[in-house]
């Protein structure tokens, strides 16, 4: 299991994680200069970052989705690009294209905005499927093919997409193949009343702080290696597979009433994603091992084998 035997000294692993995860608090504090409340959203952004996965934020306008992504890119000293998805966007506007150079009588590659560490795909569901699919190779293979050449994307590479669930006109729902490329989909809710008062006051007085780079990309890459070293017991592995299999065969797990609500069960990629995200969650909670509460919210954690064992995943 990830190169760690059951006799691994968890104490030493915990001490290592205490040191390597110190930047998490620094990053949260820096984001707190611009983001008030929304701890759920900030935590999911960090989980995607540490899991080497992509994240889709869904919520009504004005919930600081774009601001949070912009702030995260500023707090990490890395290259950032923003793509505003619109119905007239073309795949070449995302990945790049070949441009003819008359002086040299040859074609030259012009790289698109996808060539960055952090790529904000704003309102991703406003572009047609051909543009959405242009992201598939980049998100999965971490590379882009333009003409006959293939280019590796920089490390770390993270696509952070937003979408508005309210409007239907001029939108194109993401296909399953595209959704499957996101390791996390976070549905963002309204802030608490106390937080909204503070948001309103700071906006009127223009008293939000500016975000400064506090973390280097190498720190993120090193942390990802440490995340994968977090110990996961075989019982947790079986728990993850039970959750995924319950989505495929709900009637076998006492969830027959939910069968009509599930179009497709989770693929093996879902099991892999749950495993790595739960390890990332253990990392930001300063633990060297995964516990069931790292897979689902504490008050919803139940055995999916039990009748009525529905749970809310992290």
Radius of gyration: 21 Å
Low-confidence stretches: 1-7, 306-312
> What assembly state would you assign to the polypeptide chains in this entry?
single chain
Order of helices and strands: HHHEHEHEEEHHEEEHEHHHH
CATH class of the largest domain: Alpha Beta
Strand content: 5-15%
Task: State the share of residues found in helices, binned by percent.
Answer: 25-40%
Sheet with the most strands: spatial strand order: 2-5-8-1-9
What would the keywords be for this entry?
314 residues, alpha/beta, Rossmann fold, Helicase, Ruva Protein, domain 3, 5-stranded parallel sheet, disordered N terminus, disordered C terminus
Q: How would you explain this protein's 3D organization?
A:
With 314 residues, the chain is α/β, with parallel strands linked by helices. It folds into two domains: 37-220, P-loop containing nucleotide triphosphate hydrolases (Rossmann fold, 3-Layer(aba) Sandwich); 230-300, Magnesium chelatase subunit I, C-Terminal domain (Helicase, Ruva Protein, domain 3, Orthogonal Bundle). Helices cover 39% and strands 15% of the residues. It is built from twelve helices and nine strands. It has helices at 10-20, 22-31, 39-51, 65-75, 91-95, 129-132, 134-141, 176-179, 193-205, 217-228, 234-248, 268-284, and strands spanning 54-58, 80-84, 96-101, 106-111, 118-122, 143-146, 149-152, 158-163, 182-187. The strands form three sheets. The protein has a five-stranded parallel beta sheet. The protein has a two-stranded antiparallel ribbon with strand order 3-4. It has a two-stranded antiparallel sheet with strand order 6-7. Strand 3 and strand 4 (106-111) form a beta hairpin. Helix 3 crosses helix 12, helix 10 packs across helix 12 and helix 11 (234-248) crosses helix 12. The longest helix has 17 residues, at 268-284. Mean pLDDT is 85; it is low at 1-7 and 306-312.
């Amino acid at each position: 299991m990830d190169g760690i035997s059951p006799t691994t000294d968890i104490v030493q692993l915990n001490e290592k994680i205490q040191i390597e995860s110190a930047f998490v608090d620094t990053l949260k504090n820096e984001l707190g200069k611009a983001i008030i409340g929304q701890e759920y959203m900030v935590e999911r952004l960090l989980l995607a970052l540490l899991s080497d996965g992509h994240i889709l934020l869904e919520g009504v306008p004005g919930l600081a989705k774009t601001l949070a992504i912009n702030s995260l890119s500023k707090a990490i000293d890395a290259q950032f690009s923003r793509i505003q998805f619109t119905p007239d966007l073309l795949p070449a506007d995302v990945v790049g294209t070949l441009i003819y150079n008359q002086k040299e009588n040859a074609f030259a590659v012009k790289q698109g905005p996808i060539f960055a560490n952090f790529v904000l795909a704003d309102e991703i569901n406003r572009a047609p499927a051909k543009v959405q699919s242009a992201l598939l190779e980049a998100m999965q293979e971490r590379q882009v093919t333009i003409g006959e050449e293939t280019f590796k994307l920089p490390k770390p590479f993270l696509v952070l997409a937003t979408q508005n669930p309210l409007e239907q006109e001029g939108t194109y729902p993401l296909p399953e193949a595209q959704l499957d490329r996101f390791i996390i989909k976070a549905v963002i809710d309204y802030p608490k009343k106390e937080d909204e008062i503070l948001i309103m006051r700071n906006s009127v007085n223009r008293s939000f702080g500016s975000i400064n780079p506090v973390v280097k990309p190498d720190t993120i890459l090193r942390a990802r290696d440490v995340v994968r070293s977090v110990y996961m017991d075989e019982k947790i592995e079986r728990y993850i597979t039970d959750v995924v299999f319950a989505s495929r065969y709900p009637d076998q797990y006492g969830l027959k009433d939910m069968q009509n609500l599930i179009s497709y069960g989770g693929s093996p990629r879902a099991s892999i994603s749950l495993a790595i995200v739960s390890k990332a969650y253990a990392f930001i909670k300063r633990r060297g091992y995964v516990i069931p509460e790292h897979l689902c919210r504490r008050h919803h954690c139940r055995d999916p084998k039990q009748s009525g064992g529905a749970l809310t995943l992290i």
